[in-house]
Specification:
isoprene biosynthesis, binds zinc ion
């Protein structure tokens, strides 16, 4: 069967791909609280982690990597990449989006839900969405939930981020 390699491969139907991402960090003394790309002052504890512990940004990274089928945060920014130690979550999300686009995808949207009792995400939700959307170059929506006092999130020991993302293949650029 003959094939013309000079023809661009344009699928008849573009099939989007969904992904899933999670991230969990524990609250710890003596570190600033970064969540949703924002610094939250007035809290005694921040989130402990390899970077800034931003569960919203990290879950978003995991979701777009998952949707593109190219691994996860550990694959791209693991402890073997010391240049990302202490990196801001919003910086990681920007880099993750660049990697996903380099792999031949555009990002449709990212939806993140954060689970825990503090901080009060709703009070700065729009601000966080703007910061993360700018980093990703795609709409990022944030919602929040609690667990009725149950479990480590209910006891205020840590935060959980859950995310989904939609990406779709695009013709290679350049
Ligand atoms: Zn994380």
């Amino acid at each position: 069967m003959a094939s013309d390699v000079s023809s661009p491969i344009i699928p008849a139907v573009i099939i989007p791909r969904v992904g899933i991402g999670t991230d969990v960090h524990a609250f710890a003394d003596g570190v600033p609280l970064w969540v949703g790309g924002l610094r939250w002052d007035g809290y005694e504890q921040g989130l402990a982690g390899h970077s800034d512990g931003d569960v919203i940004a990290h879950a978003a990274c995991n979701a777009i990597f998952s949707a593109a089928g190219i691994g996860d945060l550990g694959t791209h920014f693991g402890t073997d990449r010391p240049e990302y130690a202490g990196a801001a979550g919003v910086k990681l999300l920007g880099e993750a989006a660049r990697i996903v686009r380099a792999a031949g995808f555009e990002i449709g949207n990212i939806a993140v839900q954060v689970i825990g009792v503090r901080p009060r995400i709703g009070s700065r939700r729009q601000e966080a969405e703007e910061v993360l959307s700018a980093a990703a170059g795609a709409p990022v929506s944030i919602s929040a939930a609690t667990t009725d006092g149950l479990g480590m999130t209910g006891r205020g020991e840590g935060l959980v981020g859950l995310a989904t993302a939609l990406v779709y293949p695009v013709a290679p650029r350049g």
